[in-house]
## 1
Amino acid sequence: MAQAYEHLSQWFERLNDDCGYEQWSQYFLSGLAALGAGSRGLEVGCGSGAFTRVLTKAGYVMTGADLSVPMLSEAMRRAREEGLSIRYVQADAAKLNLGDKFDFLLSPNDCYNYISQEKLLAAFRHAAAALRKGGLFWFDLSSSYKLREKIADNIFADDRDDVTYLCFTHLFSDRVEMDVTLFVRRTDSAFERFDEQHVQYIHETQDVVGKLEQAGFTVLRVEGHLGEEVANSDRVNFICRKA
């Protein structure tokens, strides 16, 4: 079975076209401006580059980093199509080391859920090392509520004319394992099957805050998706400043 996003990369933004990218992007643009984030940003776990493209258009100088080479290829293709010059690099959020300092580090849409509890503190320390003093670290996690109560031990499907997405999920004590299958229509109208596995780790909010503080961050705010209340939110945002 293939690793996460090896095949899903080509379809990721399309299959997520109902996630409200426009409103989600405006949430970041407003928040970064209000916090005086600076101009040079790094998006960790940038995927196919939806947010790096929006931020670049807004005047930020963005670098996008992701572990998945297929995702980075898709990000570069989409940036070229929109006439944007964005630097994309392969990097692992768990051991980030780009040899550069940024004004802010943004990581939306679950990137740090792919890092186990044992590696999370080290990942935060690498994030701190990538920031200038006073730099912002803004990331989100799929909440434990979402993973345990909505995602775990469930089946998800999205059937379209040229692609069908299936996801079977299984709950373990510290994680949810997701078996993803894609059926993609070929030019001869037959469908080709691709399989890959995703593992998202369950992180509790207070434990995350503690690890952030150990890594040298001051946690400014913890809030749900788009600023809503954390309780029963599907997503928890951690907005921090490097001391």
Note: The mean pLDDT is 95.
## 2
Amino acid sequence: MTITVLELRNYLLKPDALEHFIDYFEAHFIASQQAVGMSVLGQFRAIAYPDHFVWLRGFTDMAARLNGLTDFYGGAFWAKHRHTTNNMILDNDDVLLLRPLSDIADLTCGVTAESLAADMAAGTIATQTGLIVVDRYRAHAGQRQALIESVQTDLLPLYAREGIQVRGLFVAETRENTYPRLPVIQNPDELVVITAHNGEAAYRENQAKIQSAIKAIRTHLSQTPEPLLLSPTLRSPIRYLA
């Protein structure tokens, strides 16, 4: 499936509900969403935010997004599970609607929910999932392209030299949200970069190596970025791969 639209969804859950929510989500909402043409690409614990569950969902295009969301949230399966699910969530409106600037295949490196399920059944699944980092860079108004060019010129070559896995560059999908029942954030000045690391210690070491590139792109930023550090669940297709 070629994915051209993504949602990065960050849920605030009720206290102490995270682990049960992960189990419930992975048991019920991976295959059921795949069945209506939506791809669950990753599930994560947010390291600095213990009551947050973050996940990514992909669509082939905006029309497929509308069809998939309509079929899923209007169907019998969601009607059966929505009360239990919503009862664990305090807020689910922190959602970025994105489109990729780079090859979407890099996001999961070929790992899928189906391949992970097969690995789990065979007992061969890798338990070390590493660290995924989401950097949200906000450019000065109207200067996003300059920021993109600086990231591509100054940051990405340094990532490559240091062996840092870049999983994708994304900007806001600014076309109309045709499913307003699920609100989304569409900031036209934002660039999202997703990277994978062997763990928190490796990430800190990598950060020290790229400070020169960070300084180069800082002139294009309207505010200091705050990275979102994510720990992939065992069944997350997006994970660190050695």
Note: The radius of gyration is 18 Å.
## 3
Amino acid sequence: MPETSDADRPKSLAWVVRAVKGWVERCGPVWVQAQVIELNRRSGPTQFLTLRDVDEEISVTATCHRRVLDAAGPVETGMTVTALLRPTVWSKTGRLSFECSRIQPSGEGQLLAQLERRRRLLEAEGLFNTALHKPLPMLPRGVGLITGAHSDAERDVIRNATLRWPAVRFVVRNTLVQGSHAVEQILTALADLDADPDVDVIVIARGGGSLEDLLPFSDEALVRAVFAARTPVVSAIGHERDNPILDLVADLRASTPTDAGKRIVPDIAEETSLMTECRLRIRQSVANLVLTEQARLDGLRSRPVMVEPTATLDIAAERLQSTVTRMRSATDRCLDTAAHQIDRYLAQVRAMSPKATLDRGYAALADEHGDSVSSVRRTSTGARLRAFLSDGELGVLVESATPTSRSQAEEQS
């Protein structure tokens, strides 16, 4: 029993908080089932979440280490979990809190945790690498369809694909799409269609359903078979919010079977419109090219050389004639200059010629042997000489040879 107290003997607040803390913590860890109504993930190690009783309007705040949440798998708001809680009281504030050391998803949450662990394992092996996804053919020869017999999913895929491309051919394999035998039948149909050379794409389709209903499409064997398939696979499971593991490994994820029917074949109306537009663009391009080349050709033909081809030759002939005229004028000037120079040289030569001296009245004497007589000492009285004049020659007999006084002086010197 707690000690009694009165106003004369009050207890300290710290004593009270410690006493309450002791009473509360004697409860020890307790497994409880509750719903996660708030989850605040933080950057630090300590995480906060709010738990509510599944039957009554009672909520508590709990703390846990980040490792506890990571080990529990995908814990999300609204999930029902089984948690190991230890009640405690914060000494500084006296506030009641709960420390959570383990969390186990229960019900649908447990399934989600299992699927999350499977997804992580397959992702670590590289099965979800988008670089390995195979492209869908533009116009498949045949479309393999794996779905439930007479299901809305089958009708939606076929109707929407046929509306877009009436000639599309389907190879349908009806299987179970839920339950324990669904995976086996889907695997058999997948192997059969993948081996068919006329099937270019395979669609696995099913309408919406609960998490348990869609479990076959998260089966590890099916995921690995889709990854190993040589034919591109389209996943069209449930609605937009449904995300089985098959969506991650498929070459294309369609949000619904209707969406799959629209994405596996082209729209003939769109393709026809596109072809019409392409033809118009090609014709316009060709017409523009012809107009451009015609304008270029017209420009070339309008050039003077094309209008009058001989005009260039006429210009060249004029240039040649002008050059020849200049060369002749230059040659004539050179010849005239050379002739004048020759005349000057000839005049100089003639001025220095002995004949010019004879023309001035002088004569040149030579003895009978033809040797020049330039001095009286070169001849003697009675010698016969020849006198050359400008207009002929004379035979001369020397009667006397008298040297001049200058000649005597030069002789004596």
Note: The two ends are 186 Å apart (CA to CA).
